[in-house]
Amino acid sequence: MATGVDVATGTRIDVAELLTAMLSVPSPSGDEEAVASLLVSRLLRAGFDVDVDAAGNVVAAWGDGPETIALVGHIDTVPGRVEVRRDGDLLRGRGAVDAKGPLATAIAAVSRLPRDGGRRYVIVGAVEEETSSRGALHLAASMAAPSSLVILEPSGWDAVTIGYKGSLRMRATVEQSHAHGAGREPSAPDRCIALVRALQDRATLSGDGAGVFDRVDVRVLGFDSTSDGLTDRASADLGVRTPPGCDLDALIEVARSAVPGAGLTVLGREPGVRTDRTSPLARAFVRAIRARRGSPRFKVKTGTSDLNILAPAWGCQAVAYGPGDSQLDHTPREHVSIAELERAVSVLQLALAAE
Fold it and tell me: Has 67 been annotated as catalytic?
């Protein structure tokens, strides 16, 4: 681990300048080395102890003590071109602000805390959160459980996220002898669609009357069918969003039994998670938001994050926090205001100092 010692105590990181620099370096999932190098350099200059672990995660430590607070964000972005620009008080960057804004906020906030305060803060810029969660999976297996966990994702400066739905990703495939289109036997696409409908029917039955966070949602993410005149083939990629406590194995069995002979591949599974809104960590954020004249709110999200992996693995109190509007994630309108960045830095600094 390298140690940064060339910055005087009390140096304040300009969060807007840091975020602008991070946004200017493309970092699609699987290609995060350039932004990792930038972060290592910036963190060393700010006085952090810095390392890059075996997965490629940037790991920066600040202070020391028996209590460790982990702040885990990610440095990868969704594939595609990221256009970054400053528009008055706004920083815009499609597919990047949602990831890098909360991470820059944490770096700035922790750098303003005393190094001799009796706590150890570990900031992680994880890799491949948008795809395989390889960075978080490595952390879960290799890093000792902290006493508290803050996932760095957009919640808004005056809100705290305490829940994410789970994700079950499957590919269904049907292959059968070619049949005439006017025949009685269902086609390969028909059978694939029947499997999807079986899952949708199960979701409707189990979620009758439930809110959006507490129900199962089934989506067809991709569909393809081909025939060479001898063999007909069809495949469907499915995304199933699940609430905390949902039996994922039961959903997989519904899909397997719906169409005998169909192939089913589970591509990924992450259970839903909901954390305790009355934990000392959550209460510290509530007090910090109120101290900054905000009206604190708790949120649950229909997407997933590295909280789904790390909170169950570490079993510690946990929340997600960061500036920005998650409803704009991955859209051309994605942005964050500099004023919100500074408010979030202030809230996070106060919450960490008090927790």
Answer: no
